Amino acid sequence: MATNGLSSALTLYGARTLTLSQAAAQAGLSEAEFIEQLERRGIDVTESERAAALGREQPARAD
Question: Please, how many CA atoms are within 13 Å of residue 7, restricted to the half-sphere of its CB?
Answer without folding.
Answer: 3
